[in-house]
Design brief:
The complex is a heterotrimer of chains A (about 240), B (about 290) and C (about 300). Chain B is mostly helical and about 290 residues long. Chain B is built from 14 helices and 2 strands, in the order αααααβααααβααααα. The N and C termini of chain B lie far apart (about 45 Å). Classes of the chains: A alpha/beta (about 240), B mainly alpha (about 290), C mainly alpha (about 300). At the B-C interface, α4, α11 and α13 of B face α3, α4, α9 and α11 of C.
Chain lengths: ~240, ~290, ~300
C-alpha cells in the first residue's frame, strides 16, 4: 500500500497533514505518536470511513482513495477499531462469519470463520455471545473479524491496549505470524512502545497530523524530534 | 355456524401471523421499526380490490400488481430514510399510512372513497374466492409458511447476519464489507411484498374494504404487538404471538369496543417491553437453558 | 394578492407559536435523554382534557386551570420516567420506540374509553374575539397562545443557561458521556428533564384548549407538525423549536392561501422529508447527531 500526501481537516484543525509512507506485503509498520496525532483518522481514511480532503491511497495496484468502507473491505483492507465494536447480538462465530461471507458462500464462510477463530486462540469461545466477552477476547475478536475479509493488509488500531503482559506477547506472536507466514502487510497503531519496537520492521511517527519521522525502530526512537514530541505531551 | 366462527378465527390467525412475520423481518432483524406497515397492507388490499371491482381484472394479476406497487412505494419512501436511525425512521413510517388513507378517501373515482369497495363474490380459483373457509385457511397457511420459510432462511443466513451486523454496529459491519443501504433495501422490499400479499388475502376473504379498516394504526399496533409477544427477531415468534392473541382478540371484540381493546393491547405492549422483551420464544429458550 | 401577505405572515407567526409550544417538550426530552417521546402528543391531549373537564365542571378558564394541570402532569411525567423511561434507557433502540409508542397507545385509548371519541370544545369569553391592529386582524386565542409560547421558550432558555441544573442539562445535551464523567447526576437530571418536557406539554394543552377541539386522537393531528418543527429546529434545541415552529406556521399559512388547503397539510410532510434529507441536524441542532444517523 502506498499512502501519498493524505490531508484531512475537521473545521479549522488539520488532523492529517500530507502524510506519506508505504507498506509492503509481509512488512509490519508501527504508527506511533502522541494522543490526538491523527493516527486513527488516517486509518479511517484508508479504510474508507472518512473522506480525504486531498492525497491518494494506492493499494494492490489501484487507487482506493475514494472507496467507501465496504468496498475497501472487499479490496482487501482489514481493520480493527480502537474502541472495540463487537456485534453483541451474535456469537463469536457469527461475528466472524459476517466478514467471511464477503468472499465465500454461507457454508464455506462458517468453516473459514471457525478456522480463523481457532487460529487467534478463541476456539473455546466459538458459540459465546459476543456481548459477554472480556476485553482481551473482544480485542481478539476484532482481529479475527479483520482477518475474515481475507485481507491483504491489516490496520490494527491499539489492538494491544488493555492487555496484560502475557496477552500482549501472545498477540505479538500472532501478528508476526500473519505478516511473515501469510504475507500480510500490517500497520499497527500502538502506544505500548516496547511492543511496537520489537515487532515492527519500520516506524512512522505522527505528531499533530504530520509525519515527523520514519525509519527503523532503533533510528526513530533516537530521533530528537520524536523525543521532543513525546516529552511535549503527557506520555513518557 | 359455530364451526364457522372458529374457522374464521383460524383464517385470521394465519393472516395476522403472516403480516406480523413480514413486519418482523424488518424490525426484528433490521432494527427498522415500521410503525406504518398498515400502508403496505392497505396498498396490497386496495390494488387487488380496485382492479377486480372496477375493471374485472383477475385477482391473481391484482396480487402481482399489488406487490409491485407496494414494493415500489416502499423503496421510494424508505430509501432516503435509511440514513436515519431508529426512532426517526419509525417517525417517517408513521406518516405513510396517514397519507395513504387520505389518498384512498379522496381518489374517489378509483377507490370509491370513504364508502369503500365491495368485491363481487364470484367463487372460483380464477377469482381467488372460495365458498369454503377451508380454502382460505389453506391459502393463509401457505402464506404463513412462505413468511416463516423466508424468516428461517434469513435468520442466521447471509442477509440476516448482515442486517443484524448493521443494526448492532454499522461501522463494524461496513468494515467487513457489508453495504448497509443495500441490505436494508432488500429486507424492506421483501417485507413490503409479503405484507402486500397479506393485504391481498384479506381483500379476497373479507370482500370489503374501506380506508380506515386497512390503513388504521391499529393494524400496525397489532402486527408489532404479536411479534413482540411471541419473540421479536425469531422465525416462530410472530406465529406464537398471533396464535395467542388472535383468538383472544376475537373474544374480546365481542365485549369491548376498539378503544378498550387497544388500551389493553397498548398496556400489554408496554408490559412486554419492560418485563419480557424477548417474548415467549425468548422466555422458552431461557427456560430450556436452565 | 400581495396585499394580504402581512396578514398571512402575522397569522402564520401566531400559529407558529402554537406549534412551538407543542414541540418544546419533545426537543428537551430528546436532547437530554436521547429518547424520542412518541407519546408527547398524548400528554398534550391529556392536559387538554384536564383543562376541559375543569372548565366543564367548575367553569374555570383553561389558562387558569393550568395552575393545577401543569404540576399534576409534571408529577405524572416523573412517574413515567421512574417506571418506564429509566428502565429503557439502556435498552435497544427498537424497545425504546415500542415503549413510548406503547404509552401513546395506552393514553389515547384510555381517553377514548373514558370519554369517547366526541369532539369537545371550550368556549371562553375571548374564543372568537379578534383584535384589530394596524389594519391586521389578530385572533385573541392565537395571541394568547403565542405570548406564553415565547415566554415559555424564553423561560426555558433562561433556565438552561442561568441555573446550575439547567447548565448541567445542556451539558448532557451536548455530550452525554463527558457530562457523566464530570459528575453530573444524570438520574436526577433525567427525571427533571422528562418532568419538564411533560410539563411543557401540559402548558401547551391548556393553552390550546380554547383554540382547538379536544378529543382523544388530537395528537395525531399534532404529531406530524411537532416532529417537523423539532427536526427543523434541531433536536435538543429549545430555540430551534421556537424558530422552527414559526417557520412551519408561516409556511403553512402561505401555502394554504396561495396554493390550496390540502397542500397546507402536505407542506409540513414535504418539509419533513426535505429536512431529513438535506440537513438532518436541523437549524440549531447539535445534540444526538449520532442518533440521527450522521457520522
Amino acid at each position: 500500500m502506498r499512502i501519498d500526501g493524505l490531508v484531512r481537516r475537521f473545521g479549522g484543525l488539520v488532523a492529517v497533514n500530507a502524510v506519506t509512507f508505504d507498506v509492503h506485503a509481509g512488512e509490519i509498520v508501527g504508527l506511533i505518536g502522541p494522543n490526538g496525532a491523527g493516527k486513527t483518522t488516517l486509518f479511517d481514511i484508508v479504510s474508507g470511513h472518512v473522506h480525504a480532503d486531498s492525497g491518494r491511497v494506492f493499494f494492490a495496484g489501484r487507487d482506493v482513495t475514494h472507496l467507501r468502507a465496504s468496498e475497501c473491505a472487499r479490496a482487501g483492507i482489514g481493520r480493527t477499531f480502537q474502541i472495540v465494536k463487537p456485534l453483541t447480538t451474535l456469537t463469536v462465530h457469527e461475528n466472524v462469519m459476517v466478514g467471511a461471507l464477503l468472499h465465500n458462500s454461507h457454508k464455506i464462510a462458517g468453516q473459514k470463520a471457525a478456522a480463523i477463530i481457532e487460529r487467534v486462540g478463541m476456539g473455546a469461545l466459538l458459540h459465546r455471545p459476543a456481548g459477554s466477552l472480556t476485553i482481551e477476547s473482544r480485542k481478539r475478536l476484532e482481529l479475527a473479524r479483520a482477518l475474515s475479509v481475507q485481507p491483504k493488509i491489516l490496520l490494527l488500531d491499539e489492538i494491544l491496549a488493555g492487555l496484560n503482559t502475557s496477552e500482549v506477547n501472545e498477540s505479538l506472536e500472532l501478528i508476526r505470524g500473519f505478516a511473515k507466514s501469510d504475507g500480510l502487510a500490517v500497520i499497527m497503531i500502538e502506544h505500548i512502545l516496547h511492543a511496537v519496537m520489537s515487532l515492527a520492521d519500520r516506524i512512522v511517527v505522527l505528531d499533530h497530523g504530520v509525519s515527523i519521522a520514519q525509519g527503523l525502530p532503533e533510528t526513530v526512537v533516537r530521533d530528537p524530534k520524536v523525543i521532543a514530541a513525546y516529552l511535549g505531551s503527557d506520555e513518557a | 355456524m359455530i364451526n364457522d366462527y372458529y374457522l374464521n378465527i383460524v383464517v385470521m390467525t394465519f393472516v395476522w401471523a403472516a403480516l406480523s412475520g413480514s413486519w418482523n423481518l424488518m424490525a426484528g432483524y433490521g432494527g427498522l421499526v415500521s410503525l406504518g406497515h398498515s400502508a403496505f397492507f392497505g396498498i396490497g388490499a386496495y390494488t387487488t380490490a380496485v382492479l377486480y371491482a372496477n375493471y374485472g381484472i383477475s385477482p391473481w394479476i391484482g396480487l402481482v400488481v399489488g406487490i409491485g406497487l407496494t414494493t415500489a412505494t416502499a423503496v421510494l419512501i424508505s430509501w432516503p430514510c435509511f440514513r436515519l436511525r431508529g426512532a426517526f425512521f419509525s417517525l417517517v413510517t408513521m406518516v405513510f399510512p396517514i397519507v395513504m388513507e387520505i389518498l384512498a378517501n379522496n381518489w374517489t373515482p378509483l377507490t370509491r372513497g370513504p364508502s369503500g369497495i365491495a368485491l363481487p363474490f364470484r367463487p372460483g380459483l380464477d377469482n381467488f374466492m372460495f365458498n369454503s373457509r377451508w380454502s382460505y385457511i389453506l391459502a393463509a397457511f401457505a402464506l404463513v409458511v412462505i413468511v416463516y420459510g423466508t424468516t428461517r432462511w434469513m435468520h442466521r443466513g447471509r442477509l440476516g447476519l448482515y442486517l443484524i451486523a448493521v443494526r448492532d454496529d454499522q461501522h463494524a459491519a461496513e468494515s467487513m464489507g457489508v453495504h448497509p443501504v443495500k441490505v436494508k433495501l432488500l429486507v424492506t422490499t421483501i417485507s413490503a411484498a409479503l405484507t402486500s400479499a397479506g393485504g391481498f388475502l384479506y381483500a379476497q376473504y373479507i370482500l370489503f374494504l374501506d380506508p380506515p379498516s386497512v390503513f388504521s394504526i391499529n393494524i400496525s399496533v397489532q402486527i408489532a404487538l404479536f411479534s413482540l409477544i411471541g419473540g421479536l427477531g425469531t422465525p416462530f415468534g410472530p406465529i406464537v404471538g398471533s396464535v395467542l392473541m388472535t383468538p383472544l382478540d376475537g373474544v374480546l371484540s365481542q365485549f369491548l369496543g376498539g378503544g378498550p381493546r387497544l388500551l389493553i393491547y397498548g398496556s400489554v405492549l408496554l408490559a412486554v417491553v419492560l418485563v419480557a422483551p424477548h417474548g415467549v420464544v425468548g422466555a422458552f429458550k431461557k427456560w430450556r437453558q436452565t | 394578492m400581495l396585499a394580504i401577505l402581512p396578514q398571512l405572515l402575522v397569522s402564520g407567526i401566531l400559529i407558529g407559536g402554537v406549534y412551538a409550544l407543542a414541540s418544546v417538550g419533545l426537543t428537551l426530552i430528546f436532547g437530554v435523554l436521547r429518547i424520542v417521546n412518541f407519546a408527547q402528543g398524548e400528554f398534550i391531549m391529556l392536559a387538554m382534557f384536564g383543562a376541559f373537564w375543569i372548565n366543564y365542571l367548575w367553569g374555570i378558564d383553561p389558562y387558569v386551570s393550568a395552575l393545577a394541570v401543569v404540576p399534576a402532569m409534571f408529577l405524572l411525567g416523573l412517574l413515567v420516567e421512574r417506571f418506564v423511561i429509566q428502565r429503557i434507557l439502556t435498552a435497544p433502540h427498537s424497545m425504546q420506540i415500542f415503549a413510548t409508542f406503547g404509552i401513546s397507545v395506552i393514553l389515547q385509548n384510555l381517553a377514548l374509553t373514558l370519554w369517547g371519541p366526541d369532539y369537545r370544545s371550550v368556549t371562553t369569553a375571548y374564543t372568537s374575539k379578534a383584535y384589530s391592529v394596524a389594519g391586521l386582524s389578530i385572533s385573541a386565542t392565537s395571541l394568547f397562545a403565542f405570548i406564553p409560547a415565547v415566554l415559555m421558550a424564553a423561560g426555558l432558555i433562561a433556565f438552561l443557561h442561568l441555573t446550575r441544573d439547567g447548565r448541567a442539562l445542556r451539558a448532557l445535551v451536548q455530550n452525554r458521556y463527558a457530562a457523566t464523567l464530570m459528575g453530573v447526576d444524570t438520574r436526577r437530571l433525567n427525571q427533571l428533564a422528562f418532568g419538564c418536557g411533560i410539563a411543557c406539554a401540559a402548558i401547551s394543552g391548556c393553552i390550546l384548549t380554547p383554540m382547538y377541539y379536544t378529543f382523544p386522537t388530537v395528537a395525531v393531528d399534532l404529531i406530524v407538525t411537532s416532529f417537523v418543527v423539532v427536526v427543523l429546529g434541531g433536536m435538543g434545541s429549545v430555540l430551534g423549536a421556537l424558530v422552527g415552529g414559526l417557520i412551519i406556521g408561516v409556511a403553512q399559512t402561505l401555502t394554504g392561501f396561495y396554493l390550496s388547503v390540502e397542500f397546507k397539510d402536505a407542506i409540513a410532510l414535504l418539509l419533513f422529508i426535505v429536512i431529513l434529507l438535506v440537513r438532518p441536524q436541523g437549524l440549531f441542532g447539535r445534540a444526538g447527531t449520532e442518533e440521527m444517523g450522521m457520522k
